[in-house]
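Researcher: Let's try something more involved. This one mixes different molecule types, so please make sure each is placed in the same coordinate frame as the others.
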Amino acid sequence: MAAETTSAKVKWGLLDAVVVVFALIPVLWIVSLSFKTTATLTDGNFIPREWTFDNYKLIFQTDQFVRALINSIGIALISTTIAVVLGTMAAYAISRLDFPGKKALVGVSLLIAMFPQVSLVSPLFNIERNLGIFDTWLGLILPYITFALPLAIYTLSAFFKQIPWDLEKAAKMDGATQGEAFRKVIAPLAAPGVFTTAILVFIFCWNDFLFAISLTSTERSRTVPVALSFFTGASQFEDPTGAISAAAVTITIPIILFVLFFQRRIVAGLTSGAVKG
Amino acid sequence: MSEGKRQERRLGWLLCAPAAFVMVAVTAYPILYSIWLSLQRYDLKFPENREFIGLANYATVLSNEYWWTAFGVTMLITVISVAVELVLGMGLALIMHRTIIGRGLVRTSALIPYGIVTVVAAFSWRYAWTPGTGYLANLVSPDGAPLTERASALAIIILAEIWKTTPFMALLLMAGLALVPDDLLKAASMDGASWWQRFTKVMLPVMKPAILVALLFRTLDAFRVFDNIYVLTAGANETSSVSMIAYNNLMKGLNLGIGSTMSVLIFVTVAIIAFIFVKLFGTAAPGSTDEGRR
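Model: All components are placed in one shared frame. Result:
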C-alpha cells in the first residue's frame, strides 16, 4: 500500500509538473525577452545572458504606453463598477423575487453571453460616430458593460442562491429592521461573491481587443492591448520586441496578482455560474 | 393580487431595468441597425453614393471567395481547437480534481492562461516562432519561418487558442466532475469496472450537461477568434477569420454596407450553431432549468 501511494504521488507530481510547465512557458518567455538587452534579444536563450531594465524604463518614458495604461485602468475600473452594481441589482431580483419577465431577462443575458462581438462592430462604429462618442472612454465602457453584465448576473445569482436567507428573517425576529438585517447579515455574506464577480469582469475588460481596436482611433482612448499592437519602439528604426515584451509583462502583473491571491474564488465564480445554474 | 406581491413585482422590474436596458440598447438596437445598413450601398469613402440596394451586398459577400476562405479558416480553427480543448480540458479537470499534491499550485497555474491578455499571449507565441527571437522557430525546420506559411501559421493560431482557453474548459468540466457522486464510482469499482469503464459509463453520463455547456460556450467563443490572428499573422497567407475580414472591410475599407452584411452573416451563423447545440444535443443552457426558483 505504501509503495502504491508513493508511486501515485510520483505520477500525480509528474502530471502536475506538465500542467504547470504548459501553463507558464509562454509567460516566462515574454518575461525573459523583456529583461534582455538589445544585443542578446535574438540569442534564443530562455534565461537572459545579460539582464537589463532598459525596456521597462523605455516604455514608461513613452507617452504612448503610459497614456494607454491610464486608459485601460480607467475604462476597466469604471466598466467593472457599473456592471457589478447593475448586475448585483438584477441578480438579487432574479434569485430572490418573483416577477413576470424574469425568464426572458435570463434568456436575453444568455444570448448576449454567446453573441458574436464582431457583429456589433460595424453598427457601433457608425452609431458612436453619429453620437460623438467614437474614440472616447464612454464608447468602450458601454460595450464592456453590456458583455460583462451576463457574466455578472450569472455568477452573482449563483452566489446569492447559496446564501441562507433565513438568517435575514432571524435577524428581523431579533428586532433588526429590514435595512439593518440586510446590511449586517446579508451584505457581508454577499460581499465575497460581488468581489469575485468584479475580478472576473475586470479580467474581461482588461483583455478586450476587438472593441478597443475598432472603436478607438487615437491615444485618447486606446487601451494597452491595442497600443501594444501599434507599438513601434522609441524610434521608428528600433526593434520593438523588448519594449513590447516589457509592456506585455506590465499589463500581465495585475492579472497574475489577482490569480495568486484569489485563485479559489475565481474558480468558484467561473464554475458556479456556468454549471450549477 | 396582494399588495405584497405587487410590490415584489415592481421591485423586481425596478432592479432589473437598468441591466436589461443597457443590454438591449447596446446589442438589439445595433443589430437591427446593422441589418438596415447591410441593405444599403454605403461606403464612407463615397458617402454620396449611399442608396438602398436590397440584398445585393449579401450576393456580393456570399459569392466572394475571400469570405468563404475566411469562413473555412474560422470553422477549421473552431472545430480543431474545441476538439483538442475538450480532450486536454478533461485531462486537466481530472488532474485538478484528483491531484494529491500541489493542488493549489496546479489550479493557480492553470488560471494564468485564462487571465492573461490574449494579445500578450499572442505576442509571446509570435516571438517564440519567429526566427531569431524564438526558441521554437528552428525546432520544426532549421531555417523555416513557420508564421509565413499557411499550414504552420494556422497550426500556431490553433495552438495559441488551445493554450489560452483549455483552462476555461477544464474549470467548467471540473464543476461537472464535482457533481459525480463518489459512491457511484466506488460501487462501479466494486463491481469490477475498469477505470475506463467507470469514466465512460459513470462519469461521462453524469457530466453530460456540463460538457455540453462547456462545448457550446467554447465553440461560439472560438468562432469569434480575432486577437490571436491579428497579432500572429495579421491575416496574411489566407489565415483571416470571419471576424478579421469583417474588421478589415470596416476599418481599412470603411465600407459600412459590406461590413454590416458580414456582421449579420456572422450573427446568423452563430445563431445556427447555438440552435443546433440546444435542439440536437439538448444542451441545458445555464439558467434555463431551475433558474428563478428559490
